[in-house]
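Lecture notes, continued. The same structure-token format from the folding unit now serves as the input rather than the output. Read the line below as a description of shape only.
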């Protein structure tokens, strides 16, 4: 892609778009547009010779977050409304079926001086003006009137209200709250302003304690967050489960080959396959539990993010571990008539979940507009941080007598004299006779390391938009 000069501005219809000043003007007056939508418009205008794929747009404009499939559609609708495309008889943004979007309005490029001065009339030597605010008694248009009407109107859709709230933040949070207070629908409007404050750089505080009809505002915010969680957390949870399954598969396969090598025996494909299957199952279940907590925390809670990740991941991991412990003990007791009280369960899941939340939270700063999705080296750092945290806690759990997957498997195998699964040989690696404390700790740390890495890599995978799966 050809590098775009930052000292270029674009004219189309009666609009001027300045990259230098990051502003959209219509006949010399600034048009309110939140920063991310301005980024989208700049991208479409600069790459107007081609139809941009939705995946590329999401990777460029929403590079640091995962957003719902409708976020791009909402942004394009907002741009079309801002450009007054509907009813004007002029097309600005063309939808390319099952592909993406293209800017189709004729554009004239102009050089822009360092002072922001242009070469065309209408702005002269004053350059590009700042945001025009209405002056009392001057008859100037009120830039907040339209967004306020959409935010408060009962017939407005969720996307229209969210876009209106973001615009009002960009125009000034304090003034938006002042003008919302006391009007019909103010509690719901306050909830939208509170939820979107994280998505607009420079937005002010929206304390719910100061909201009119405080409890209605709280319940409205809870409903918004739950709908958001439903949209965003499903794919996130599934990707985390897949990452945990892959990590467990690797751990089981590695264990099978290691046991054969330490015993000086040929590799038994059946044993390796069995250990791989057990590892994948345990990893998927564990990641499903912890991943659901992490996804829910990111979707529901926007402040105190790391603490929220730790708490919800710990609770969901502990619940998953307790359920798995009860299920395995029940099945083994019913089939074999034996009890296995030493198997790992709730406490282990609680500890590993908290560790995963801490490691992941520290490595992924709070995102705006969606769930964190670091990529490249940042994604590897997030995986490494989560892996190290899980490994350290797993070793500590083992030292305190807890049992993770490998130790639980050894406990079960020892109840069957003919079992080919014996982890005693691993002790030779650490100079220890049999499957002793050092070996248990090392194996637990290895499991935690792989689990944390797989969980984080799955959790941060950017999903392909649904309408592109068959394009």
């Amino acid at each position: 892609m050809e590098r775009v000069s930052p000292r270029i501005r674009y004219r189309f219809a009666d609009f001027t778009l300045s990259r230098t000043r990051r502003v959209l003007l219509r006949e010399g007056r600034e048009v309110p547009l939140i920063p991310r939508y301005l980024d989208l418009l700049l991208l479409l205008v600069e790459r107007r010779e081609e139809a941009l794929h939705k995946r590329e747009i999401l990777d460029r404009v929403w590079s640091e977050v995962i957003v719902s499939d409708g976020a791009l559609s909402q942004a394009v609708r907002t741009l079309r409304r801002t450009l007054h495309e509907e009813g004007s008889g002029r097309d600005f943004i063309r939808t390319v079926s099952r592909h993406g979007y293209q800017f189709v309005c004729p554009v004239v490029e102009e050089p822009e001086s360092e002072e922001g001065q242009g070469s065309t009339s209408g702005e002269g030597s004053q350059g590009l003006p700042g945001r025009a605010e209405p002056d009392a008694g001057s008859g100037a248009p009120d830039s907040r009137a339209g967004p306020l009407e959409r935010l408060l109107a009962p017939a407005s859709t969720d996307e229209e209200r969210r876009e209106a709230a973001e615009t009002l933040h960009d125009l000034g949070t304090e003034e938006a709250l002042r003008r919302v207070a006391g009007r019909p629908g103010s509690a719901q409007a306050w909830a939208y302003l509170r939820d979107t404050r994280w998505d607009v750089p420079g937005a002010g505080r929206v304390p719910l304690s100061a909201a009119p009809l405080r409890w209605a505002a709280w319940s409205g915010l809870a409903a918004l967050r739950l709908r958001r969680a439903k949209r965003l957390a499903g794919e996130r949870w599934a990707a985390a489960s897949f990452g945990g399954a892959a990590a467990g598969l690797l751990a089981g396969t590695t264990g099978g080959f290691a046991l054969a090598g330490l015993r000086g025996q040929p590799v038994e494909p059946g044993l390796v396959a069995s250990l791989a299957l057990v590892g994948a199952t345990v990893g998927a279940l564990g990641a499903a539990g912890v991943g659901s907590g992490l996804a829910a925390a990111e979707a529901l809670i926007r402040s105190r993010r790391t603490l929220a990740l730790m708490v919800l991941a710990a609770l969901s991991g502990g619940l998953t571990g307790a359920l798995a412990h009860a299920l395995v003990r029940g099945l083994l007791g019913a089939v074999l008539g034996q009890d296995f009280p030493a198997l790992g369960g709730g406490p282990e899941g609680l500890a590993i979940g908290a560790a995963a939340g801490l490691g992941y939270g520290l490595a992924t700063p709070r995102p705006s507009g969606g769930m964190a999705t670091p990529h490249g080296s940042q994604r590897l750092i997030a995986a490494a941080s989560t892996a190290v945290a899980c490994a350290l806690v797993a070793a500590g759990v083992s030292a305190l007598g807890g049992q993770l997957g490998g130790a639980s498997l050894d406990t079960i195998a020892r109840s069957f004299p003919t079992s080919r699964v014996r982890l005693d040989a691993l002790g030779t690696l650490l100079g220890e006779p049999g499957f002793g404390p050092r070996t248990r700790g090392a194996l637990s740390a290895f499991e935690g390391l792989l689990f944390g890495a797989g969980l984080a890599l799955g959790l941060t995978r950017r999903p392909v938009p649904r309408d592109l799966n068959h394009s």
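Point for the exam: Residues 116-138 have pLDDT under 50 and may be disordered.
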